[in-house]
Amino acid sequence: MGTASDIKLINEDGLRLDGRSADELRPMKIETDVLARADGSAYIEWGGNKILVAVYGPREAFPKHTQDIDKAVVKARYNMAAFSVDERKRPGPDRRSMEISKVISEALSSAVMVNQFPRAEIDVYIEVLQADAGTRIAGLTASSVALAAAGIPMKDMVVGCTAGKVEGQVVLDLSKEEDNFGQADLPMAVLPKSGNVVLLQMDGDLSVEEFEKASSMILEATKKIHKIQRDALAGKYKAIALERSGE
Ligand code: ADP
After folding, report:
1. What is the full DSSP assignment across 13-55?
2. Residues with Cβ within 6 A of ligand 1?
3. Residue 246 above 80 pLDDT?
4. Is pLDDT of 3 > 70?
């Protein structure tokens, strides 16, 4: 968050720098099965974000002390490529990527039927190739598609989006400039069937009214995002069916 009085993020018609209205999502595209060696994979483009997710497992958790005798452990690892941002990012884990890996692991654990796989681990590798704000939510949204593509039993998908405050206005799906110069950023993820919130973070300040407006904008947007996830998976199964029928 910062301030830059010389940058006007919302014009007099209420449109944002990239021409979007307050409750408009950036363009989004999800593909499955993009990596041959993974048990499941997905690629998401969301605005300027480009993220690959590879899922492996369930497999015996290693090292052994990480095993849970009652359930599978979901180990998500979020990583930003050195070339994913303007200035070269120093490679390797840092505090931010460890925090994001943790919140994504927890969110995914709420959706996966972990009790079916005691002592197992499910590895989710999230590789950010190009970052443009909202990468944790984009990575999480793609991860749940990759898990489903791996055939891992899940109660529900995980669908995320952000909203925030820019020049005093609540807006959906912050762009990089809005994230940098806005007043608040609220990433949130839900399980669409139950409506349970599985990730909620906030950077900056929102009043109670602004928070309610932001979260209802996000909930509305998750319906559209959930459809894009379902379409990506339906595309996969359609391709398999065509293959089997010899077409
Ligand atoms: P998120 O990507 O989930 O919004 P942050 O709010 O921490 O997470 O980051 C916002 C954006 O700032 C990122 O999407 C990325 O474009 C940029 N960013 C994050 N870390 C770095 C970094 N080390 N160097 C340059 N840009 C970064």
Report:
1. TS-BTTS--TTPPPPEEEEE---SSSSEEEEEEETTEEEEEEE
2. 85, 87, 89, 96, 131-136, 176, 179, 185, 187
3. no
4. no
Distance in angstroms (rounded) separating the CA atoms of residues 163 and 170: 7
Query: What is the number of structural domains in the chain?
Result: 1
* Cα 107–Cα 110–Cα 114 angle in degrees, nearest 5: 125
Ligand 1, atom 23: nearest CA belongs to which residue? Answer: 89
**Domain span holding position 119:** 20-245
How many A from CA of 138 to the centre of ligand 1?
12
| pLDDT at position 237 over 90 | no
Please tell me the distance between residue 234's alpha carbon and the centre of ligand 1 in angstroms: 31
CATH number of the CATH domain containing 225: 3.30.230.70
Predicted confidence band of residue 217 (pLDDT cuts 50, 70, 90): very high
Helices (H), 24-115: 95-111
Task: Compute, in angstroms, the gap from residue 180 CA to the centroid of ligand 1.
Answer: 9
| pLDDT score, position 1 | 55
Residue 153, domain member (yes or no): yes
142 in any annotated domain: yes
Q: 225 lies in a domain? A: yes
Q: Whose CA is nearest to atom 26 of ligand 1?
A: 85
Residue 14, in any domain of the structure? no
133 Cα: distance to centroid of ligand 1 (angstroms): 6
pLDDT band at 235 (very low <50, low <70, confident <90, very high): confident
- Cβ–Cβ under 8 Å, residues 125 and 100: no
pLDDT for residue 247 is more than 70: no
